[in-house]
Amino acid sequence: MRSIGVAVLLTSALGAVCLADNLDKYGVFGPKKIALGSTPSMDGQSFSSGFTLSTEEPLATLDYDYEVAGLPYFLVSSVSNGPVEIELKYAEQFPALSLNYSDGPSQFTTSIANSRRVETHRFTEDEIGATITSVLSQPGQRWQSLRLLTGDSITFETVGLQASVEVIDDLTNLPGKFSSSNANSSEENGTYGLWPGTRPGISYRTWNLTDYVLTFESQIIRGGAGYTIAYDLTGNRDGVQIHLSSEYPSDTTFSNINTTLFPANTVTLAYGYDFVNATSVTSYILGQYDVPFNVKENVWYPVEIRVNATAGNIVFSIDGKQVFDIILTEMGFTDDQLSFYGYASRGEGAIGFGGWQDQASYVRNVTATSLSDSSKVLYSTPMTDESVVVPEFGGQSNAHGVCMDGAKRDRYIWLGDFYHTTRIMGVANSKPEQIAGTWEFLFEYQADYGQFSGFAPISYQSPMPLPEVFLNDAGKVDAYYNFPDYVILGMIGLVSYMDYFDDDAFVKAHWEEFTRAMTWLIGNQGSNRLIDLTKYVVVFLGPGAGMAVNAAAVQCLDGMAVVAWAIGDLESANSWLQVAASVKTAINELLWNDTLGNYAVDVSTPEVYGVSATAFALTSGVANETQIKLIVDGLEGLRQGPGYLDSSDTDITAHISPNTNGFLLDALLQHGYTDQAVFLFDNLWDAMISNENFRSGASWEYVAQSLY
């Protein structure tokens, strides 16, 4: 989004003609291989110079060899029978190039990068010799395809990405070194880098809108405009999506426009993150409604959205003409379908503005007034000041260096994943500023009572003036964050950070924040001496008062005691060691099952054991040598083709989690169980890095037992 005097321009992968700049910051990424043909192909030849797309060979597949990120750029040397339209796709994994939306859209978070993984560019003779760039960068991919849509041919002198992350063509130049007798485990087969990600911007200032009338002016520049209401900012959950289509004039409309999803002169209504599904994120089309006139481009229209959240009623009007009047509960979908982490909006929540693939629009003079009292203004912004709009709607550039676990999708810091990534950073690129910067974001969103956010945004205003609005049940005395166990994992990550970098100065400067988090954690110890995080609803490691949570808590308490000792806070060190000892005793009294020969995942399920529980029993020191042998032997009951099931009551056909198996791998190696560790290396990790379709990056949250 950028200021243009009267309004802010909202774009979604709008192809634009502009001079490439800022090349000296990181440089460029260029493709390593190219394949020409009619379909995507992995059988590429070395890329050395330009190439031509024609009706005989309309598609080029570019292979960057590893994960890259940046602003796409193009230099055209000839155009035949123009204008020539080119459809571009970007993907982490090769098979996505054959999908309609590639491996997108990436709708989980907002940023300055492109949430769409497909975009279109139109080239004429006027662009010959000029460097053409996309408006928005692509956040992470190995693969790129260019398909000729219109015209006879086009010759590209060069293509690539103006890098938004550090360019390292030779991974052996990284500070960290790793060697292995197994060629598939070498460091060159991994991924690296820090990336941004995006979706239509959501205003954090509107987090609690309910029963209101929203008015604004909207101008479509190309294709359509998108409006989001009823978004649950506090839990980053869903919303009501409204899309207005123009009449699609021929001079601005691309040939590949999706008129099935968005017919001309219509309003499309959806519930969820978007209008199409993405990985683990489902959306529902609720209806399509005709606008009673042709919607012109480059014309300002007044828009009104009336929201009665009490009744679940939404009324949409444009230019004084009502387009729909619906009740969410009568749209044919159940609460179970529409809920995300147990929540389904009835219209209450935040608002936002954006668009679909290849679209651009303006919005200005946004006002929300009370539904029952039009004189009561709930929210207002002219949308003309970039310095205000961009950080409010989540399009801010990174205020700090940051370490993230996802390339193309995440603009959130998942604190639990910091357990893994802190150590990876320590042995790979050795950039402590990215780890410290990650914590700087987390400090901004720390709750008053001490809990860190399990997933903290990085693209909103920084410092964040209203961190409390991001908590679940914000505004209530018992507001909380989900993923409380991520705080435990994150603090273990801090212990690793100190092991690798010995950064006393950073820890001392933020000791108050860290000790508040530890005080919060200890405050969750119950009368049975177990830590109980159940009230925080969503717990990743398993039951909130279960084995994995408590063993990890022991590891956290013991580790943070060492950190406290290192900076001279002996009182905290001794206190945390005492709590750790009491939790350890409770674990062995309440969760060890002699008959099972294993730790139960929870007191209520004494016969069930699991991977995370086993892993943290080993790494925390909770288990003695006899117990360790028994629980490692028990892993055979969880073993499937590529790895270990999360627990003994998991469906045996379920996908395998590299995350939880990663906890286990660390634990096995620490205790010398190399046979089990080699099994994971040769199967689960090998499945991710040896297949050329996926090895540079993919949706590795889970791996199917078929290894696809």
Automatic annotation (TrEMBL):
Please verify whether the record's keywords include Cell inner membrane: no
Q: Which residue range or ranges hold the Alpha-L-rhamnosidase six-hairpin glycosidase domain?
A: 394-612
Question: What would be one Pfam family of this protein?
Answer: Bac_rhamnosid6H
Report the domain of life of the source organism.
Answer: Eukaryota
Q: Report the GO molecular function annotations.
A: hydrolase activity, acting on glycosyl bonds
The record's section on SUPFAM superfamilies has: Six-hairpin glycosidases (SSF48208)
UniProt keywords, alphabetically: Glycosidase, Hydrolase, Signal
Q: Which GO terms describe its biological process?
A: carbohydrate metabolic process
Leader sequence range is 1-20
Q: Which PANTHER family match?
A: ALPHA-L-RHAMNOSIDASE C-TERMINAL DOMAIN-CONTAINING PROTEIN, C, PUTATIVE (AFU_ORTHOLOGUE AFUA_3G02880)-RELATED
What this protein is called in its record is Bacterial alpha-L-rhamnosidase 6 hairpin glycosidase domain
